[in-house]
């Protein structure tokens, strides 16, 4: 067996290719353009994670002792942190080469954690509106592990009224038997992390799967009859050119999935690419610049629209907007409750942002305490103004903003609260303000995460995001 990095499980030749790509970074970007540098571009939550504190976990403990608002939807996120290989651009908490015994211990711990929450007055008796399995690689688990895990989850909190069960997959981990098991547990939306259909691009970026495995996985998923299949693509990966990018776009169109999600490549801290950049003294990442990525995504959206898809957010195209819903996303944007299960998981309860322990042994120690316990490491208690800002920012990713909605829910008129920022967006062609409605233009959607920082409250401006 070839030498491998013991942390990432990457073959030695893949690690060498990464170093070579980083060393030649200046040859990848065009001077004068918006170069891709290290940092978190994607705005996933608000206020920034850097403001969350361990001291505020006590507020969550008090919240759990009181009943919840019965009108507030409740979701559940389960983090499965296991992968065959760690991608060079991955910044999530993942583990490679864990034994069956270690995986079982982890899954047992998540059940202990769920049992703790299910017994709390704030959660007890509530129905789950959505369930999301993310990672890592949820499809890394075996069929028997998946069925056992979800049976025990349903015993604690039934899924009989759940509107959506979403499940992330790495194509190379799927076969017909596993796909059948995923369908059997109740998954309604299967998300395939394809990222690219080009084998060389996949290998260069440290992905574990190949194109042939994509075809096998998609065929099995279609045969299983899932309500929705989503394909993930990433624009601007290492080694990507306009030619091979559009080959991936065209192949995704041929597969005719219900929805496609497209992200633009970013290089956060805690990624293999960043570590190689730091070691080599580089500040520019070996990927396409932002202007190029926006151009590629814009033209991809045009091709999808010509094929009958509709652009429904900054990142998604869907075949039938009336049928294809994103319950988890929409609930999350709207401030619904979300239970976090698993190491490093994020959640939200009663207006409080929460995150679990970031290290697996510490996480397991916490949730397996006698008598039951959570594993929260930090939290942030939002005030009403911050909750308004959070929802307004996140919903801008959907391309719209209804001032009447925000006035009714928060007592705040965004047209007044953000008068200057919205005027600037309209001046620069990123938004249209017409008859009291706010519409984000295509050009605005393509760079919405960059634009959102201008809408942060002054006390959060300029801070590191994570």
Judged by helices, strands and strand pairing, the structural class is alpha/beta
What is the count of β-strands? 17
Rg over alpha carbons: 22 Å
User: How many individual helices?
Assistant: 18
CATH homologous superfamily caption of the largest domain:
tm_1862 like domain
Q: CA-to-CA gap between the ends? A: 38 Å
Low-confidence regions: 26-33
Broad shape: globular
Query: Can you summarize the main beta sheet?
Result: 9 strands, mixed
CATH topology call of the largest domain: pyruvate-formate lyase- activating enzyme
Mean pLDDT: 93
Total separate domains = 2
Helix content: 25-40%
CATH class group of the largest domain: Alpha Beta
Major sheet: order of its strands?
Answer: 9-10-8-7-6-5-4-1-11
Describe the secondary-structure layout.
Elements: H1 12-23, H2 57-63, E1 74-80, E2 82-83, E3 95-96, H3 100-118, E4 130-135, H4 143-156, E5 164-169, H5 176-184, E6 189-195, H6 199-204, H7 211-224, E7 228-235, H8 242-255, E8 259-264, H9 272-280, H10 290-306, E9 310-311, E10 316-318, H11 327-333, E11 337-341, E12 346-349, E13 352-356, H12 360-367, E14 376-381, H13 384-396, E15 400-401, H14 403-410, H15 414-417, H16 419-427, E16 431-434, E17 437-440, H17 442-445, H18 448-452
Helix pairs in contact: 1-9, 3-4, 3-12, 4-5, 5-7, 8-10
